[in-house]
Amino acid sequence: QVQLVESGGGLVQAGGSLRLSCAASGSTVSINVMGWYSQAPGKQREFVAFITRGGNTNYHDSVKGRFTISSDNAKNMVYLQMNSLKPEDTAVYYCNAFSVSALGRVDYWGQGTQVTVSS
Fold first, then answer.
1. I want to staple 78 with a disulfide (CB 3.0 to 4.6 A). Which of 33, 43, 71, 118 is the partner?
2. How confident is the model at residue 44 (pLDDT cuts 50, 70, 90)?
3. Which helix (H) or strand (E) holds 74?
4. pLDDT at 67
5. How many beta carbons lie within 10 A of that of residue 28, not counting itself?
């Protein structure tokens, strides 16, 4: 089992920045990829960014050039630096980690942290 705890959300004006952090604990050696998802009110949870254990990254088109995902494998941490925030970025942001084995993919989720961007 893997436990994920997010921090760093809050209220910011449009154009501002926030840095989200996610701390992983438990069976972290099994994790292949960590990432972030967002869920706005009334909408489905959607992918924001991920980073592999080897450092490869991928981003949703809407955040490319504004958000940066990074990790510290030694500390089992993943971060999301969010710059040039827009009101449409307002959502609950969830940390995700998954492992892949012969048994299949197993996903783990944090409890979420609220990001609110005012116009």
1. 71
2. very high
3. none
4. 98
5. 17
The amino acid that residue 46 corresponds to is E
Residues 6+ apart with CB under 8 A from 82: 17, 18, 19, 20, 63, 66, 67, 89, 115
Instruction: Give CA–CA dist 70/77, Å, rounded.
Output: 9
Distance CA 90, CA 41 (A): 9
CA 95 vs. chain centroid, Å, equals 4
Under a CB-based contact definition with an 8 Å cutoff, are residues 9 and 20 in contact?
Answer: yes
Distance of CA 65 to the CA centre of its chain: 16
3-state helix, strand, coil in the chain (%, to 5): 10, 60, 30
Element (H, E) at 76: none
